[in-house]
Records
---
Amino acid sequence: MFHRLWTVLFPPRCILCRRFLKKEETDLCHHCREHAPEVTSEKFKFSFLARWCAIWYYKDDVRNSILRYKFNRRQSYADAYGRLLAMKLQRTGMDNFDVLTWVPVSFLRRWKRGFDQTENIALVVARELNVPAIRTLKKIRHTPPQSGISNAAARRANVLNAYRVIDSALVRDKSILLLDDVLTTGATASECAKTLCLSGAREVSCAVVAVAPHGNK
């Protein structure tokens, strides 16, 4: 009864375009399932990452959706992102790994925001794939947001040595799947992957909700 009342008072909306969902729709409306900027090719490379995948390109409604999630406390979006990302991993054959982990935020950013947006997505992906999500990394230095830095070299410098492996035994000789919300220049994911590899990880792959369009690079 409570669920029915909640649905009447707050009808579910598409996480991208915010249209009200029809009874048979879940997470996305039919239009967005058909026309959202889905990533169909992962040909370009990021340093220290063996493979990567993303659901969408980071633009238009996708970008607005992720900004609402991170800055307007739409934490329910994590369930939708996690379900869709788990399906993407299965479709691309990237669901075969030893450890699922995520890019952590600093203590200060978590305190200000009230949650770790990538950890929440990781927990849903882990549930959907029936594997544990393991915290392997700690952010040891609070850094300015990468979104405010446009230069790729400056982004790499901003996160240099900002992460530390909690326990090398968790990652040694393991195939790691690293989750994040967005890949732009890849500086953050690459720095985390480098840190994991230096602690003995066999390889690191990355899965994200969205990736910035990189043209013909």
---
Amino acid sequence: MTLLSYLVFKTAAASGSFYKTAEILGLTPSAISHTVSNMEKELGFAVFYRGRGGISLTNSGQQLLPYVNNVLNAEESLQQVIAEMNGLKAGLVKIGVFSSVCTTWLPDILYHFQEKYPEVEVEVFQGTYDDVREWLKTGQVDLGFLSVSSAGEMHIEPLQADPLVCVVPAGSNMDKGKGYMAIEDIRGHGFVYQRESTDADIQKFLKENQLEVVSRHHVVDDLSTVKLVEKGFGICLMPALCMQDIHCDVETYPIRPEAGRIIGIAVQNPNLMAPAVRMMYNYIVKTYKEV
């Protein structure tokens, strides 16, 4: 198979449409269909289901996708090495981020990195810890921000500790004047609860301290969580970084015993990073790693 067939396969899998794939790649729909048919003929099995609503990967196609991504990533790495040999700082970096890093660190990272390396393109994918870890495994992203506890087998460079805080409606006086929230202050209160894939470190703290959460509000993003707390629908635990860009009428308190997450930058294989990826990796570590 050719690099074009790999690119068509990846783009079609992401877009869910041969027509959209043709638009993205600047080809005709018939050329896309012909490329996929030839690829399936060469493979000996179908990689796409065709339907009125579009296309989707077969089980065989799902199994091939990480390998196709690896081939395309290797080609990108090769082009970056050639550019580096010619004295150019160019290439593409795909980075996965979770919500709080996306709203706090990422804008500065993109601004200053691309000011320094204007020829390097950066593509951003936002999702949960589970999303970022899966994107790293399949090669959809080159780098990914994760908490150390959520990285699993991924290589991760720890950057900063991010303590958990308790967020309560304004004027609740739940801390009883102590300036912090103890386990017994939290126990028994209704919670606004985030899914486990959204912040596993909070779930870990709840389990370790036998805090049974009662909640009818199961949300994903940080702002929705805090907004519901503001209106009195419960309290929540939140990494302190999440609260930097959220301006609601709530109060935040440190918790005792102290707990939190360690934010890090993860990569599938630190020894096989393309030049542009390594430049961004080194920039992030240099800028955000706590001494």
---
Amino acid sequence: MSTLEPQEQEGPPPGRLMRMPRVVTLLALAIALAHVASYLLDPRAFAALAGALAVTPSHFVDGEAGVPGAVASLFGHAFVHAGLLHLFFNLMLILQTGELVAARFGRDADGALRFLALFFGSAAAGGVAYVVINWGSPIPAVGASGAACGLFAAYLLAPFADWRVALRTRQVLQMGLVFVLVNVALAAAARLSGVLPIAWEAHLGGFLAGLVLYPILLPRRAS
């Protein structure tokens, strides 16, 4: 993953990004600790918890989850991972993209809330996309991939003072296209061929949500 080099920037100049924003560190730590808990809990207890937090399309059709359960799964699935490799790739993407995005929102409490809104909004959008495209399927989906894809979309826009400029920049469009091809098209091919059970729908939903939510959540500059 290369670093964007836009000509129009605001905030910290290139090469002078400060320490990792606390909200990113704490979020990554919470996701990692949730996975550690999977080894500490009784297998039956963890299976029940994972089942409740996973996004399962059939539960939305038959109403088994109920409103509280549906809400819990749309946000909670980001804290459940299928294995260490799954966890590792998601955490690396969150940490790599989260620093710049969180810095753009601001390092105070308000900025942290904006960052979390982007993260969990992208997670929910990824979950909704998985449910809609796989309507009625009993196969659950877990992981922070959708949320991480939302952060990546915001990361593409974040170096620019005006996000609209980013959407007209060739480098941004190329990186976005490559990301979608790898994380949606190739991921779909991997699942269809039985190589890896990747929820490409969540990747797509999270990425699109990130593109929409970042400009909405970005603090307005004082006039």
---
Amino acid sequence: MLLAIDVGNTNIMLGVYDGKELRKSWRISTDREQTDDEYGILIRNLFQQNALQAECINAMIISSVVPPLRYPLQKMALRYFNVSPLIVGPGIKTGLNILFDNPREVGADRVVNSVAAIELYGGPLIIVDFGTATTFCAISEKEEYLGGAIAPGINISMEALFQKAAKLPRVELIRPSKVIGKDTIASMQSGILFGFVGQVDGIVKRMLKEFPQKPKVLATGGLAGLIAKESETIEEVNYLLTLEGLRIIYERNTPTRQ
């Protein structure tokens, strides 16, 4: 079985695949200070709680936008699973044609999402990923990676508002009953939620004008569903897009895997 690991700045997504079937997935917090032993014990505990045998893992792929965690996770793979992991990075076969001025600047998460989206939906596409940053990726009708946009993520913006405005509290991000809030918390929830919906729709609509034919607009990431419910442009949400991309990339780099 394959263990796919996607390391983001805020969360780590884990998925166990038996062939093309996703047996189980988890989302845990990213901690740059954790050691290989701590990650190994945590992941093996998740396996144990879900009646999965760690010994059944014979392959692993890791995508990371957090460089300090690459080495600990590689050590964890070897020590706790006896597997040398495939790392998504320069030189790996993705099948993605990147039309970027410097292809090495494209983050691993954006590459993995694009590979999965093309495989599952074909081009043209716009992929909106609600992570620590909100990223927009444009895929042509020829299934080429054209580029995109990067904006501050929702949680970053909420935290900045709390830290920089002395009288504003931390709030739970839920949909308020009305846009016009009647108290501070409802007003903040309205501004954050509908403000980000407006940002997403505004950027997507501007990107649409640069496509010769209308692309499918796809969203992923933990908060994708909340924003998609209010968005005029998002057509579908796929929370497992990144894990699927990792599975596909692993298969493309190990065609003889049994």
